[in-house]
Amino acid sequence: MSVWNPDNIKDVAESIGIASLNDDVLQGLSSDIEYRLSQVLEESLKFMRHSKRATLSTQDVAQALRVLDVEPLYGYESTRPLRFGEASIGPGQPIFYVEDEEVDFEKLINAPLPKVPREITLTAHFLAVDGNQPTIPHNPTVADSRNQELVPKGPGANPHIAAISGADNVTVKPLVKHLLSKELQLYFSNACSAVFDENSDEYRAAALASIRTDPGLHQLIPYFVQFIAEKVTHNLKNLFILTQTLQLTSALLDNKNLYLDPYVSSLVPPVLTCLIGRHLGSSATPLSSYTLRNTAATLLGSICKKYAKSSHTLKPRLARTCLKHFLDPTKPLATNYGGIIGLQAVGGIEAVRVLILPNVKVYETLIREPLEDEGSPKQAEAEAVLTALIAALQTLEDDTFGFLNGVKNGETADQDRKLEERVGPLVAARVLQMQRPSLVKALIEA
Q: Residues 269, 229: contact at Cβ < 8 Å?
């Protein structure tokens, strides 16, 4: 016995002119209709499940009819819910029908036309190549970037600016959410805490050794770079933290498995701060920061040696910055010291010959007065600066020069006069005290 009511089939048959149907025919048609409906419903449910939905829609039924090679129903593609009306004909079961929406043609005609949508166009361009942004119309220009940097963002917009202004407790919400595994998060937390552990040298050495050799730290590179910048900005008076920050930077640079070319421009500023910063460490012991500056100069030299080919403007920019702080009379002597050793580390012998040697005579006038002030704190700093100058000039020495006509080159009055004209009386006296004729000749002829 079929679930489908045969009376419905009889009503449809009478509507198309078939007056009477055999009962066996009605029973067969009822079974066939039931089978076809169940087939359509099964296919519709498949579309619903594949669409990750729990409600069957008219679109699912239409897709099922297309799969079964049946002409789909028209007029039921609207995404709005259907409104059914109820009509009762006699005492029987009520009939439900879809109410047609009445449309006012006058309002429809007078309604404004919608805007014409723009055509979809796609243009491909390189946003960055190996960390360098090409100068093309699609990318922002250098002027736009500088204007964006000059826009006031408030004390909480940039954590480094907030630290300088004294608002250290401001929390900054990152613009992009990075997803790190729990293992990497735990590694980053433990490694950073171990590097700055003042109580255990073993933990610090183990953490730095792991960062120096671990091949799976690519996702943590931007976090380490930001961590280094924040540590330097917030702890300019703590030499231990600054020293460990440089050790952490050196460990990252020594890791051969990491590609750091795009991050060099972000790693250089913290190292430069430790090299030419005005006030590093305690003001009671001004010479305590000089060891830190030597470490920063060595690290800066290794950065230039490793990444000068990928970033052609790196070495000139660093040399220009160090020269500016070396010759600036308004800067403290510690900053001048950092500029001298920075120039030597970045440019080598050529930088000493072209940038340091021609300015020694002018610069020595700045340290002559502090050197003559016995017992003052600046005397020790001036002595350190003078020692750094002599050490830089010694790199110009050529060991092939020895004796000339049986007389040492630096002992003649003519050479003494030329040396004093070249580097000034103060530096000339120190060089002559060393009794190295090859150095004297190298400085005169350089």
A: yes
Phi, psi of 140 (to 5 degrees): -65, 145
pLDDT tens per residue across span 123-160: 887 777 777 777 777 777 766 665 555 545 554 455 55
How far from chain centre, in Å, is Cα 332?
Answer: 33
The yes-or-no verdict on residue 16 having pLDDT over 80 is yes
CA–centroid distance for 21 within its chain: 81
Q: Is pLDDT of 426 > 70?
A: yes
Total length of the chain: 446
Per the structure block, which two tokens stand in for 99? 């109410």
CA distance 408 to 428: 16
Closest CA to 388 of 339, 323, 438, 319: 339
Task: Single out the residue of 324, 317, 368, 376 nearest to residue 347, CA to CA.
Answer: 317
Q: Please give the structure tokens belonging to residue 335.
A: 């900053």
pLDDT band, residue 373 (cuts 50/70/90): confident
State if pTM tops 0.90.
Answer: no
Cα separation, 151 vs 25, in Å, equals: 85
Q: How many CB atoms lie within 10 A of CB 392?
A: 21
SS (H, E, C) 58-97: HHHHHHHHHHCCCCCCCCCCCCCCCCEEEECCCCCCCEEE
At 77, give phi and psi (nearest 5°): -90, 0
Contacts of 362 (CB under 8 A, 6+ apart): 327
pLDDT at 80: 64
Asked whether residue 181 carries a pLDDT value surpassing 80, the answer given is yes
At 327, is the secondary structure helix, strand, or coil? helix
In the predicted model, what is the mean pLDDT of residues 301-322?
Answer: 88
Question: What one-character DSSP code corresponds to residue 354?
Answer: I
Give the per-residue pLDDT at 118.
83
Task: List C-alpha distances in Å: 27 to 2, 8, 10, 135.
Answer: 7, 12, 11, 79
* Residue 34, H or E segment: helix 23-50
